[in-house]
Specification:
Chain lengths: 329, 163
């Protein structure tokens, strides 16, 4: 047995390596998406965006932002509930990191291939709502509380279509494992038979991420910054990081469910799978950023109605049709 | 003790402390957050017993849905979520009821599983689905029907006050 084999047969070393890789991905990919958002939004609005930091087109802007956030004073309001206030950013951030653990970048490139795969993703991401409610309540600020209640109402409403859309995919693939779902798309990508599902999933993801046009909970013209109003410095950076991390994670899950994950389009097999996965995450992230530059904000009642009367019945019909087709074919 | 037993002891301690703080806390929101700790530790115990699917159901339903609805309800209504301390005069009575239930359950579990050797086998989601929709299809449907009835009942009750 060579030294390398011996090294990789040790459970703890492999575990450590996986943790380092997942954390590395978590720290790098959101920075890329954040920088892309600065630049893409700027160009869509006919301006340049960051140009100074790091000389070349301001590529180091977000690193500079990070350094700035660390240096800032960490203010906790006097009336705030100190413990809950300080724990909230972590409760929002940790689920995002945990979801990365199950994202496959190749048939053998994943940190964990859980049997419950997509179910784990949905269960874990539901936890971050508690963090938002904690942040809004503990801030002892009426804008924060209003923002938190709006955020919770929105996340409850849009979690259902997200899960129901994923159910249809799981029925076609016959498995919940993310690697299994990708492998089931060897013949054709599920977007071909599940286009409504993909649209429901992306719209519900936007709402889960609280991004325009679903940014009522942090509507800056009326409630300052919602649940995050009182946060400063590194804790505020945590919330920003979990938003960009969330874009990466939900784009990755949408790629796995509908766009064939790490599989190459026909005839392009010479480009390795992880690059295809990265390209698909990038493309979906671009669409999410693009939508922010395009649509105005929905009002709270429109937003609720859109989910309960529009997306949820549509997702249920989608499940019904899919079930019939799966049984008959 | 095996590694598993060490983990179980730690989780049981966390869950018990969470449950105690849940009932002794004088702030409703804190109590709801301690409920998260308790429910999550139960989920972790399921994981420890290799019941992966049940564990994540616990997280999705109890932590992700029920506690969120609880907190949401507290914050949306006129519930006392400020700094005022809540308390009532029935702690002695509550303690007696709580201890009685604990004793009853402990005796029941001890009596039933005293000599039973629990074999831990990993169960896949496919197996859970098979047994649910083949062997236990009737109970499953009965429970679904019950939940539907509860749902409709809740809507009827909420509507009556309105009109």
């Amino acid at each position: 047995m060579s030294f390398v084999d011996q090294l990789f047969s040790n459970v703890w070393i492999v575990l450590l390596l996986k943790v380092v890789l997942v954390m590395g991905f978590f720290l790098v990919a959101p920075l890329g998406v954040g920088y892309a958002e600065h630049k893409i939004l700027a160009h869509m609005q006919h301006r340049l965006g960051p140009m100074e930091a790091g000389r070349f087109h301001g590529w180091a802007q977000l690193i500079a932002d990070g350094v700035k956030f660390i240096q800032k004073e960490d203010v906790i309001p006097r009336a705030a509930d100190r413990w809950v206030f300080s724990l909230a950013p972590a409760v929002v951030l940790v689920p995002t990191i945990l979801v990365i653990v199950v994202i496959p970048f190749g048939p053998d490139i994943w940190a964990l291939n859980l049997d419950v795969g997509i179910f784990f993703v949905m269960a874990i991401s539901a936890v971050s709502v508690i963090g938002v409610l904690m942040a809004g309540w503990a801030s002892a600020n009426k804008f924060s509380l209003i923002g938190a209640v709006r955020a919770a109402a929105q996340l409850i409403a849009y979690e259902l279509p997200l899960i129901l859309a994923a159910v249809s995919v799981a029925m076609i693939a016959g498995t919940l494992s993310l690697v299994g779902i990708v492998e089931a798309q060897r013949d054709y990508w599920f977007v071909l038979v599940q286009l409504p599902g993909l649209l429901i999933f992306v719209v519900a993801s936007l709402a889960e991420l609280v991004r325009t046009p679903f940014d009522m909970p942090i509507a800056d013209s009326e409630i300052v910054f919602g649940a995050y109003t009182e946060y400063t410095g590194i804790k505020f950076a945590f919330f920003l990081l979990s938003e960009y991390g969330g874009i990466v994670v939900l784009s990755a899950i949408a790629s796995v469910l509908y766009l064939g994950g790490y599989l190459a389009p026909p005839g392009l097999d010479f480009i390795p799978g992880p690059l295809w996965m990265a390209a698909k995450i990038g493309a979906l992230s671009f669409v999410i950023i693009w939508l922010r530059a395009t649509y105005p904000r929905l009002r709270e009642d429109q937003l609720q109605r859109f989910s309960w009367i529009g997306l949820i019945p549509l997702a249920l019909v989608n499940i019904l049709v899919t079930a019939v087709v799966v049984v008959v074919v | 003790m095996t590694l598993q037993e060490w983990f179980f002891t730690a989780l049981a301690l966390v869950g018990t402390v969470g449950a105690l703080r849940l009932v002794t806390s004088k702030n409703v929101v804190h109590a709801a957050l301690y409920l998260v700790v308790t429910l999550a530790s139960v989920g972790a115990v399921y994981l420890l017993m290799a019941a992966e699917f049940v564990a994540w159901v616990q997280v999705l339903i109890y932590v992700g849905a029920i506690v969120v609805l609880l907190l949401f309800g507290l914050m949306l209504t006129r519930a006392p979520i400020g700094r005022e301390a809540l308390d009532n005069q029935q702690r002695g009575f509550a303690a007696i009821v709580g201890l009685a239930v604990l004793a009853g359950l402990a005796i029941l579990v001890w009596d039933t599983f005293r000599d039973a050797e629990i074999v831990l086998g990993t169960s896949t989601t496919a197996e859970v689905g098979e047994s649910l929709f083949r062997t236990y299809i009737l109970p499953f449907e009965v429970v679904s029907f019950l939940l539907l009835a509860a749902l409709i009942g809740a809507i009827v009750l909420a509507r009556r006050e309105e009109g």
